[in-house]
Amino acid sequence: MQLLLELWPPVSFFIVSAITTTFALTGLYLVRKKYPAEVLKENHEVAAIIFNAFGLFYGVMLAFVVFVTWNGYSDATKDLQMEANLADDLFHIAQAFHEPARTVMQKGLHDYVTSVQNDELRRMAQGEIEIHSSTGLMSGLISTFYHLDENSFPNKEIYAEALSRLNNLAEYRRLRIFSGNDTVPGVVWLVLLVGALFTVCFNYLFGMKNIKAQYLITATLTVTMSQILFLIFVLDHPFTGASRISADPLREVLNVMEAK
Question: Where are the domains of the chain?
């Protein structure tokens, strides 16, 4: 599945839809080969009622999971943007420091943003990073700030503001990591996949006289559900693959820092 995330999204969606639809139509073919339409029509009255109720419950749950994962993806995007913005703010606040504190802090911020862009995001894409497995640059940055000579700060207001922004930077870094991959619990995936299987199999209980129309309906339903489920999978991996969150905010901040 990780390989599908790396492909161009339309290609990934096509592969998922093609595989699931092939299995769904094969199952319909085997059922209709064994049971003619006349036999299946006896199920219509009861099966239709159950299918409508089940479809309603499953559709509501599917919509809820899409909503939650989309919010998580949006929050992860915001966390990365805020992290970049705070690093930029601290870089400019450091210009008010006296030397050598100014150069030390600005270099530390530059190294931190570079590390996030080139190392942390890459390891997050591979699912290799946790909150306590960082490069150590954040803890080093905080330690550097605390060990600065108090004479390096023009006034207490500048110190308080810099300290507040630094704490916020550390907070948004933690939020970015927490909002990483695999936020949808496995039990939720189990319910979604089993529900999708039951929904498709319910179509086998109906015997349409026009078998081509039933194939078309089954294929349409399968493609729709497989695309929604794959969409949830993509949103659940905000820092992985072709649809990952853009690192442009970090690159823009680096450009600003290197231009000074």
Answer: 2-215+228-259
